[in-house]
């Protein structure tokens, strides 16, 4: 039993490193957002939308939200406007390294969640993919434009739109976020 606990502690100590991985986005307090802060707000976002999606397994959505960026632990976050063709390969390798101290069943669960998110075929992964993009845009809209890269004024109005069409509520939510983005840019 104690070896199992030590291995879980090893994983928890390793995943703690993700707290120091920053994203391109900034917080309203003027510092760079961390990867776990983004994932946390995605989970909160999902929680408050639960009644809009009675057909979706929200526990699965929470798990996907938590795991979706685990692969950024060693190489960091890559801004969406700087696509990297090797991103998924590197992230999968990172996740396998990250979970290696966990029991095989738990390793498989985490890796499968990460793959499910990236394949974006299940209703839960489609919702999480949309929330991932929306949360990023909402975060950008929460801070001053000087924290944005120049490309983002145009990029943010198209970013992730292909993931919004699976549900009418998400499409409407995106329209409102886009309106806020446009107003923010206009009033700069």
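-> sequence recovered:
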């Amino acid at each position: 039993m104690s070896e199992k606990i030590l291995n879980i502690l090893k994983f928890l100590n390793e995943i703690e490193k993700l707290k120091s991985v920053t994203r391109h986005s900034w917080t309203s307090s003027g510092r760079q957002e961390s990867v776990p802060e983004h994932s946390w707000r995605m989970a909160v976002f999902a929680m408050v939308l639960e009644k809009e999606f009675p057909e979706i397994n929200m526990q699965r959505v929470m798990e996907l939200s938590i795991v979706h960026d685990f692969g950024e632990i060693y190489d960091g976050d890559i801004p969406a406007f700087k696509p990297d063709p090797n991103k998924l390969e590197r992230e999968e390798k990172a996740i396998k390294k990250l979970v290696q101290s966990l029991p095989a069943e738990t390793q498989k669960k985490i890796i499968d969640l990460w793959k499910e998110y990236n394949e974006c075929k299940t209703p839960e992964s489609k919702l999480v993919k949309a929330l991932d993009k929306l949360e990023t845009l909402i975060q950008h809209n929460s801070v001053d434009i000087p924290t944005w890269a120049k490309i983002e004024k145009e990029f943010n109005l198209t970013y992730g739109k292909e993931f919004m069409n699976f549900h009418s509520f998400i499409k409407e939510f995106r329209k409102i976020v886009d309106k806020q983005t446009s107003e923010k840019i206009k009033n700069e």
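Residues 123-141 form the longest helix (19 residues).
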